[in-house]
Amino acid sequence: MRIALVSVAFVFCLALLPAVLRAEQQAPVTSAPAAIPPTGSFADMVETLLPAVVNISSTQKLEAPQDFPEMPQFPDGSPFEDFFEEFMEKRGGGMPIEPAASLGSGFIIDAEKGYVVTNNHVIKDADEIRVILHDDESVPAEVVGRDEKTDLAVLKITTDKKLTAVHFGPSEHLRVGDWVVAIGNPFGLGGTVTAGIISARKRDINSGPYDDYLQTDASINRGNSGGPMFDLNGNVIGINTAIFSPSGGSVGIGFAIPSDLAKPVIDQILEFGRTRRGWLGVRIQTVTDEIAESLGIGNTKGALIASVTPDGPADKAGIKAGDVIIQFNGKEINEMRTLPRAVAETAIDTKADVVYWRDGKEKKTKVVIGELEEAEKDGLLATGPDSTSEGVEVTNAGVKLSTMTDTLRQDYNIGRDVNGVVITSVTHLSEAAKKGLLEGDVIVEINQQGVTDPQKAKEIIDLAEKNGRSSVLLLINREGDVRFVALRLKSAAATPEKE
To answer: Is 173 an annotated catalytic residue?
Structure first.
């Protein structure tokens, strides 16, 4: 049986499975008889909430592919040569292609201004977005802002009808076993209500740098993406985003972005049209038992600094590689993944108190927090977990490539049987970025030639461009999932599409 982590609008990469499976093994599974909610019924609460939940329909217009990478050379008389020629003639001859459609859910958070919250993947790459209200009226929507790191987006609609809004409540105090209600648009059915309990908290499913999901057994299916999860007070305490399933349908393991993580992101989008996260300027890794023992910390807590960005906030505050941050702005850093979120939620240009471990003792410093998005735009971030790795810039492909190392294998979860060159940076708005290439992807082949040296990979791409090719064919390995990507070269790339 094939098991997959499924977004409630699309299928996540199978490479995410190990993290989820490990998470599931941490808590024993018990069975208990079904119970009714304390009030006896959700009906009164649901009746007031349903008008605020909307369906999202997004359409992406597809164009007939024009520049195929060159096909392999076949021996004279090979029947495959005629087959490929006929295939490419048909594809280049203007065959009609149906627009790709996506269905999801959302909810209104401001009735006067018409603001709607949903998942970013529901409206990603969409040319047209429509919001279907509870009374089935369909209205066009514009994107106010989006955030790929947390998979959130804010839309705005305009209508003469009176809208109903819902409000966020705190998720921090939720306990395992608390009742929750999910409302959304599963399989396009719309207005569907399910109930369950919080099954677990703080789940990391390796979908982004700030994973902190609520797990629930409330039925969530494809199309529920972006829909709200309510507590019994009618407050939004989560945004339904993904499910873990062997079949693509609900098996009682769903994941929601907690409101305490989502609300600051949404507030920033509403205020600035984008996120403005705090930036420390470090690369970090987990403190293992062996590392803790060697450093004399006594227990496995904190975030180990693997590298420091030159002239970044941490560097200016005297923090060095090998230090272990154990407290940030008064918050204990008990595990590595706690630090990125704590930093991201810190106000830019403010001073943060940092407690770190060095030379067998605790030390303190103050760090002036920078802005992550500005650092990304200015290229100040380290290009990979090992910031000392120079790598090779391939500007016509929009990527930076590095030689495979043990450090990169560990930090990007690259198997020992995988060989190639590692993408350690992707240029913003480049063709590589639009094709979905990510840091940590391994290029195994370029135009059917195996590559293990970044400079050799660059030469193959440069030669293809010199010979008049408009694209190259890459074989990409992402955490065990292998696929081909046809990448148009910079000189032939089209003008970037409008957001």
So the answer is: no
* CA–CA dist 471, 349 (Å, integer): 43
C-alpha span between 11 and 173 (Å, rounded): 31
Say if residues 364 and 329 touch (Cβ distance below 8 Å).
no
Q: In what helix (H) or strand (E) does residue 266 lie, and over which residues does it extend? A: helix 259-272
**pLDDT-based confidence at 331, cuts 50/70/90?**
very high
| Structure tokens that stand for 146 in this block | 């989006």
The last residue of a domain, from among 275, 306, 334: 275
Q: Is residue 72 part of a domain?
A: no
Q: C-alpha distances in angstroms, 344 versus 166, 167, 214, 261, 307?
A: 26, 23, 20, 10, 18
Nearest CA among 346, 270, 294, 355 for reference residue 319: 355
Q: How many domains does the chain have?
A: 3
Active site residue 219: no
Q: Which of 57, 121, 231, 245 is catalytic?
A: 121
* Owning domain of residue 227: 1-66+82-275
pTM beyond 0.70: no
Does 457 lie in the same domain as 478? Answer: yes
Among residues 151, 260, 386, 441, the one annotated as catalytic is 151
Residues 333 and 468 reside in one and the same domain: no
Known active-site residue 121: yes
Q: Exposed, middle or buried by CB within 10 Å (0-12, 13-18, 19+), for 495?
A: exposed
Q: What is the pLDDT of residues 78-127, one digit of tens each?
A: 555 555 556 555 555 444 455 667 789 999 999 999 999 999 999 988 88
In residues, how long is the chain?
Answer: 499
Q: How many Å apart are CA 304 and CA 402, to the nearest integer? A: 23
Average pLDDT of span 128-150: 94
- Name which residue leads in pLDDT, 306 or 49: 49
SS3 category, 304? strand
DSSP state of 200: E
Give the CB-side neighbour count of residue 459, counting CA atoms within 13 A: 8
- Is residue 126 a contact partner of residue 58, using CB atoms and an 8 Å limit? yes
Residues sharing a CB contact under 8 Å with residue 36, sequence separation 6 or more, in sequence order: none
Q: Among residues 225, 307, 389, 402, which one is catalytic?
A: 225
C-alpha R_g of the chain: 24
Q: How far is CA 415 from CA 17, 268, 336, 404, in A?
A: 15, 38, 22, 11
The one-character DSSP state at 21 is H
Task: Assess whether pLDDT exceeds 90 at residue 28.
Answer: no
